[in-house]
């Protein structure tokens, strides 16, 4: 791996912080992703592996949604020392591109939401999608957004309503990161309000 574990992962961390503090901001991880050797990925996308290397350590646990879950879990464990565990106990939930439809909704419903005393013990959900620059239009409001922000997500999942239900008792809730095939990243923290921006077509 030609990735600089200190310098390059610091850059990834800064981009994660930027996108989380400014929901709607798309961060580009392609430069760092290009430094991840193909043989090191072992079932992971380069950008997902970057996030795992940046955020995971021996103190955290994770759950992978994928037909290759065991293989990917072994790779992440070997590289980060984080521990695979059950869905309801995991600190991080990883929804891979090849996960069964409905996996994201299942993860949201069953993920740890934290407690009033320790809301930070909630789960972080990381999702691989086709694109974070095309697809369904979503209107964002909330902290870090001046008025509103329009984003797009190309994902075949019914998840917005489940997320809204999960996050209704703030500060409890879950945070989401979406990464696409071009290594673009979009973060949606629990404080962000999401509305489907459907266009109404009038019959002429």
TrEMBL record:
Output the Pfam families linked to this UniProt entry.
PhnH
What is the official name of this protein in its record? Alpha-D-ribose 1-methylphosphonate 5-triphosphate synthase subunit PhnH
Native organism: Neobacillus niacini
| An MF annotation (GO) of this entry | alpha-D-ribose 1-methylphosphonate 5-triphosphate synthase activity
Enzyme superclass (EC) = transferase
List the GO biological process terms: organic phosphonate metabolic process
Highest rank taxon of the organism: Bacteria
Give the matching InterPro entries: PhnH-like_sp (IPR038058), Phosphonate_metab_PhnH (IPR008772)
Q: Which UniProt keywords apply?
A: Transferase
EC assignment:
2.7.8.37
Gene3D superfamilies per the UniProt record, alphabetical: Bacterial phosphonate metabolism protein PhnH
């Amino acid at each position: 791996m030609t990735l600089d574990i200190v310098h390059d992962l610091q850059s990834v961390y800064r981009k994660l912080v930027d996108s989380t503090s400014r929901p709607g901001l798309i961060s580009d991880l392609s430069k760092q992703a290009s430094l991840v050797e193909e043989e090191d990925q072992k079932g992971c996308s380069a950008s997902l592996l970057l996030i795992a290397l940046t955020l995971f350590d021996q103190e955290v646990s994770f759950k992978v949604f994928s037909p290759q879950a065991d293989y990917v879990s072994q790779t992440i464990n070997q590289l980060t020392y984080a521990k695979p565990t059950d869905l309801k106990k995991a600190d991080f939930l990883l929804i891979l591109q090849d996960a069964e439809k409905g996996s994201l909704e299942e993860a949201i419903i069953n993920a740890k939401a934290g407690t009033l005393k320790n809301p930070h013990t909630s789960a972080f959900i990381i999702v691989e999608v086709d694109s974070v620059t095309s697809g369904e239009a979503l209107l964002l409001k909330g902290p870090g957004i001046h008025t509103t922000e329009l984003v797009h997500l190309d994902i075949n999942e019914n998840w917005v309503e489940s997320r809204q239900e999960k996050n209704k008792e703030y500060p409890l809730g879950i945070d989401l990161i979406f990464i696409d095939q071009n290594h673009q990243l979009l973060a949606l923290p629990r404080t962000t309000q999401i509305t489907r921006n459907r266009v109404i077509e009038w019959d002429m």
